[in-house]
Write a structure and sequence with these properties.
mainly alpha, single chain
Length: 203
């Protein structure tokens, strides 16, 4: 983090803004397809479309700390947007862990990028994990916001072990697909402008 410059922080801010724009597009598309239950697939939907932001950050700001900052931005968003009280924790943990994998390990670049991106996408699970692991507290939080019993029952209806496994699997699969799409975009539009080789990050 000491090597960060003002320009790096500005760049992270720009990438964070693009990230949230892509997330908003994913949320809109999911809502159109899944209605009230779309919230469960926001992490995987975002993973599908936001890979290019991750690639640009790791290539244009190749320093430990950039991914962590993006995770902290997610955490701040969850803290101040009325989500469940502990929703920010996965964003911090997954952001730091992805950063460590990306910049502090000796894994091959393809593996580092794919593993880091996949783990980072779990940073968006903070608002939904309490539905499985802290359900009573989650119900109380919804009730305190004025949600009636029928709404709470309806929104928790699909919460079971099978849907939990489906969400985990969808995040992993969408991270792989999303990074593959992002790599094609990066190689076509960005790599040559930076004098980088055309070797794919993920094939």
């Amino acid at each position: 983090m000491k090597s960060f410059k003002i320009q790096d922080l500005i760049s992270v801010g720009i990438y964070a803004a693009i990230y949230y724009l892509l997330m908003a597009i994913a949320v809109f598309a999911l809502h159109m397809g899944f209605g009230i239950f779309s919230y469960m697939f926001i992490p995987s939907g975002t993973a599908l479309v936001a890979g290019i932001v991750y690639l640009l950050m790791t290539h244009r700001i190749p320093k430990f700390g950039a991914i962590t900052i993006l995770g902290l931005v997610n955490a701040a968003f969850f803290m101040f947007s009325g989500y469940f009280a502990l929703s920010f924790i996965p964003s911090i943990v997954c952001g730091i862990l992805a950063d460590v994998i990306q910049h502090k390990t000796n894994l091959p670049e393809k593996i580092r990028t794919l593993l880091g991106y996949t783990i980072f996408n779990f940073s968006l699970t903070g608002p939904i994990l309490p539905m499985w692991f802290m359900q009573d507290a989650y119900k109380e939080a919804l009730a305190s916001k004025g949600k009636d019993a029928s709404y709470i029952t309806e929104i928790l209806k699909p919460v079971n072990n099978m849907t939990f496994a489906l969400i985990i699997l969808s995040i992993i699969v969408c991270s792989i697909i999303g990074l593959w799409i992002a790599n094609n975009i990066y190689q076509k539009h960005f790599a040559k402008t930076k004098g980088q080789t055309n070797e794919n990050i993920i094939r």
